[in-house]
Amino acid sequence: RRLSSKKIRSQFLDFFRSHDHVFVPSSSVVPSKDDGSYFVNAGMNQFKPIFLGTTEPGSDMAQLKRAVNSQKCIRVGGKHNDLKDVGRDLTHHTFFEMLGSWSFGDYFKREACVMAWQLLTEVYKIPADQLLVTYFGGNTELGLEPDEECREIWLSIGVPGNRVFPLGMKDNFWDMGDCGPCGPCTEIHLNRGLDASANLHERLMAGDPGITELWNLVFMQFNRELDGSLRALPACHVDTGMGLERLAAVLQGVSSNYDTDLFRPIFEVIQQVCDCPPYGGATGSDDKHSIDTAYRIIADHSRMLTVAMGDGLVPGRKGLDARVRHIMYRAFMHGFALNAPRGLLADLVPVVVDSLGEAFPELVAVPHQMQDVIITTEQRYSEQMKETEKSMKKALKASSVPHQLSTQEAERIVKGFYGSTTNADLLSLCAESMGVQFDVDAFHNHGLQQVRRSPTSVRSLAKERPALNQYEVEYLLQRGVPPTDDTFKYSTFN
Ligand code: ATP
Ligand code: MG
Ligand code: MG
Ligand code: MG
């Protein structure tokens, strides 16, 4: 019998509880210092004060030595942004659950590796010869040595040397953002390749889809300062995170997260409501407009939206609300490929609540309100989309290349030259649905360039104006100005 995702989650929590870890509920997906650009993206976010040594003495948090939880994470902005991969690959979601364990100045590398290995191979019974591990290979520029200690630990646990690999900063040095707690890490991967031992290192480095990263064990030792330098933290900590959806795929014997019990029930309702062909399964199709891709994106987005609204966000014009609106618009747009009737997304809310409500009781309280908000937004979306399509057709008629929207034309549309309800975001969705080429990154870069030309004015603007535009904020972030107060709430898509 297949292990359900609920059981997988509870076995994780129980295992660490039995090793003296205290269960800490997931925090909201809205960061405590919300700069409007990213959601909580890892289990460690809520523990940042512990790493930095800034907890209130005597508080519950200051007393924590070992913790375990299952954190709601969303990665659609800031340093960790997976939106482009969502639905196109089988392992990245906008929303996912991170199963995490922590040592706060208590045990360090050895115990962390031993516990992780024991859980995977003895409790979950994943065959050890399907697993491989990576460790930090050092960085001369920053004066960081390779983590030989970590390598030795894996060898002593019994992982053969030909399955222990050094990797560089990008993969094996973890940070939550441009500044903040960080450190070298070691990661456990699952090798699904048929030829189990051939070219593992090369395949790892090339990001071979047959190898899935499962679990990251971070050894928190530094804080990255505003100027990019690394300062040693007052103590050494362990911070681990494993995606529940990926683990569920492994333990349920399927090759795609979308074939687990976390997604299947959502697909069933999509099929019923749309009366379309069933989800085709894990082909990993890269056909951008395939029905299966639409299934995956809508199901993914329905989870993210339900969770975000459960934490009090609503589709809107500013900050995280604007990101919620963007994701919601994308979900509506992909409904096109499935011939979805109005109301599909709203119909998925109870399915998600059913699946996640036990782990996150805050979802159970407000499904009807969420559904009402979605219905109203869908109405607005379709009106705005019609307007945008009109503007787009007009612009394309005047354009020299008929299936391509240039940055200049896009700017004219967004600035209201053709239509006033349009925004760059909607424009890129509209281009996608009409099969028109529009390089939204080039468009954004152009905006950023314009801001770069007058840096001083941006700094003073930050003091004067309540809302900066996206480019102004990005400029400040890149210059290391900490986005802490309300002036940094921006309207990305107005
Ligand atoms: P990847 O290299 O696959 O993008 P990552 O290195 O960015 O993952 P970490 O920051 O190390 O991920 O997060 C810890 C774990 O969380 C990963 O090992 C993975 O199991 C899971 N995870 C990360 N991003 C996602 C995502 N977008 N969707 C689902 N699970 C994820
Ligand atoms: Mg990633
Ligand atoms: Mg990785
Ligand atoms: Mg990782």
Instruction: Please tell me what the overall shape is.
Output: globular
Q: Name the CATH homologous superfamily of the largest domain.
A: Bira Bifunctional Protein, Domain 2
**What's the CATH topology label of the largest domain?**
BirA Bifunctional Protein, domain 2
CATH class of the largest domain: Alpha Beta
- What is the residue-mean pLDDT, rounded to a whole number? 87
Number-wise, the strands total 13
How far from one another are the termini?
Answer: 51 Å
Biggest beta sheet attributes: 9 strands, mixed
What is the count of structural domains?
3
Helix content: 40-55%
The hetero molecules present are: adenosine-5'-triphosphate, magnesium ion
Percent range for β-strand residues: 15-25%
Number of H/I helices = 18
Oligomeric grouping of the chains: single chain
Please state the structural category.
Answer: alpha+beta
Low-confidence stretches: 482-494
Radius of gyration: 23 Å
Q: Which architecture of the largest domain would the CATH scheme give at its second level?
A: 2-Layer Sandwich
Cofactor: Zn(2+)
Subunit structure: Monomer.
Keywords: Aminoacyl-tRNA synthetase, ATP-binding, Ligase, Metal-binding, Nucleotide-binding, Protein biosynthesis, RNA-binding, tRNA-binding, Zinc
GO molecular function: alanine-tRNA ligase activity; aminoacyl-tRNA deacylase activity; ATP binding; tRNA binding; zinc ion binding
